[in-house]
Amino acid sequence: MEFRLPKAPPSKSKQPPGWLRWAGIGGGIVVAALVLVLLAGVFSARRILTWGLRRVTASAVAAVPSDVPAARREELRRRLDCVVGQVERGGVDERRLGELARACSRAARDRRVSPEELERMEVLAGGLCALAGGELPN
Fold first, then answer.
1. pTM for the whole thing?
2. Contacts of the segment 99-105: beta carbons below 8 A, 24+ positions apart
């Protein structure tokens, strides 16, 4: 007597269902798009920082009272421009840059720069420019 196992009916699901295949393709496309967005963000972060710093420093210079001599106002603008230029090139101490940005934004928010704030911005901007290796234009 011979022993034989009954034959199993052929399986219909040798391949995953069609919707699963399309879900996998869609998920792969989403992951690839997110990686591209991440890379674009990494490469444009310095540009965005520079843009924001230009705006806040321009607002701070505009908030300097009119009774401040034009030469001092121009010197502040030159120092701030030097810092922005060094940020574009990279290599600026972020902690000290944050201090300068906070001082400028505080001055811009108040729309009035006190003598102490003006001196603080001048010192911070000059120090950052010098530490980053920048030279103030003559």
1. 0.66
2. 99/124, 100/124, 100/125, 100/128, 101/52, 101/53, 101/56, 103/60, 104/56, 104/57, 104/59, 104/60, 104/80, 105/56, 105/59, 105/60
- Give every CB contact of residue 131 below 8 A, 6+ residues apart in sequence: 92, 93, 96
How many other CB atoms are there within 10 angstroms of residue 27's CB atom? 10
Distance between CA 80 and CA 85 in Å, rounded? Answer: 9
DSSP 91: -
- Among candidate residues 93, 94, 96, 90, the one with its CA nearest the CA of residue 123: 96
pLDDT tens readout for residues 24-47: 889 999 999 999 999 888 778 788
